[in-house]
Amino acid sequence: MDDRLALWMPHLTGLGFAFALGACVGSFINVVAYRMPLGMSVINPPSRCPTCGRRLRLHENIPILGWAFARGRCSTCRVSISLQYPGIELLVALMFAATYWMSFVAEPSGWWGRSWAQWFQHYGLVATLPGLVAVLTLLSCLVASTLTDVRTFTIPLGVTLTATVTGVAAWALQGALATEVMAATWPLPSVSWWVAGASLGGGVAVLGANALLHTGSLTRSFADYGEFVKDGETLAEYPHARREMKHEVLLLGGIIVAALVGALSLGGVQGIPPPVMQGLCAPVFGYMIGAGTVWVVRIVATWIKGVEAMGMGDVHLLGAAGACLGWIDPLAAFFIAPFSGLAWVGAAGVVKLASGKPLRRELPYGPHLAVAVVALVLCRGAFVDVGRLVFPGVIPAVRALQTPPRSGEMGALSERPEGQHTSEKGFSNEEDMDRRWMRSRRNTLDGLRQWGTEAKRDTPERERNAQDATRAGAGRSRSG
Ligand SMILES: [Zn+2]
Predict the structure, then answer these.
(1) What is the structure's pLDDT at 346?
(2) What pTM value is reported for the model?
(3) What percentage of the chain exceeds 70 in pLDDT?
(4) Ligand 1 center to 438 CA (angstroms)
């Protein structure tokens, strides 16, 4: 217990900063979720009381505390202010603090830090800042999209686009900065030349399609939806859903063909793509897999049912998750989301039984996707454990796709940062993947141990060695 306390004490400042930053972002999300569906600017005018229009004073603008100071009421018109505002601020603050904890405080081989903390702790906060920004932006945009989706049944494109662009730009920058992107601890799925080609081809096609939509050369599907919405309703009984799917099949087909052309033109290149390509293509491929999965389901389900089955906002939402986390997480989230849906139906049933009133008529699917992605990011250990139990073959199969490169192919990438043992350099070709994976894991543990000695200077030498041995042993048995 003492040991753990010593480990996280130096991080109190970081945790406090993450919490405060999250509270401010939560405050901004409240504004975005209120104004964006109304088509208002999110910057101007400054925050006002929605009832009497009085501008908020400086101290009332402080996240969480401002609401508490005013005791939940506007000081001029005394109208009560929804608990949603401080609630969202607190939620995002806790998410940011949890992400910081998971990345920089949690033990890398432990439950919370698994398959995440190794890379962040190895390179430190400054060097991994772009990656961290991508993840925090995604979490913020998921909260914002959930708020608007629940309220208005739409997800503003601006929200998902923010996460997508940030994800691609941040990881591309991270790839350009990295010295050994392909280390087994690199948090994004690795990219072969085939995948890089598919990402570049598909990415160019997505940009092209958006340019054509923007200029009006391509019409958006459901463009005449508004004509069928009755007064006072948000959703309409749209009669041409099947017809509209033909447009979307053509658009999706064009993007898939472009991705195939890209894959065929780069697939033959020897070796592995350099760090810059890894950083750029992993999020683009993640975007395509995330968005593509929901899009295919939307097209098929809409064709069968004859009514729009899943919103285009959900397509952009899982695309954004892929752009920030790579291609595996959105796929996993897609299969986790129905459980969130079941939990919601169950909760609604309990509330209805207890109070006699229904919880809510209907909830769109976007919030369940968002909950699944957030749960995956923050509780990865639980899903890895359940995945091992329920689908024993899946996790080794996914890891096999992530084979780290052999030393000959590493080239300039094999330069190791200071503080790492040079004796580990150069993997022989015969070594199987698991042993290579374990080695890089041990390197990380070595680095961490050096960093940990700072915090544990008081621990007697003998005791420390014993602890290290147990920890390394624990790491090894888990990686098998
Ligand atoms: Zn007021």
Answers:
(1) 86
(2) 0.79
(3) 77
(4) 60
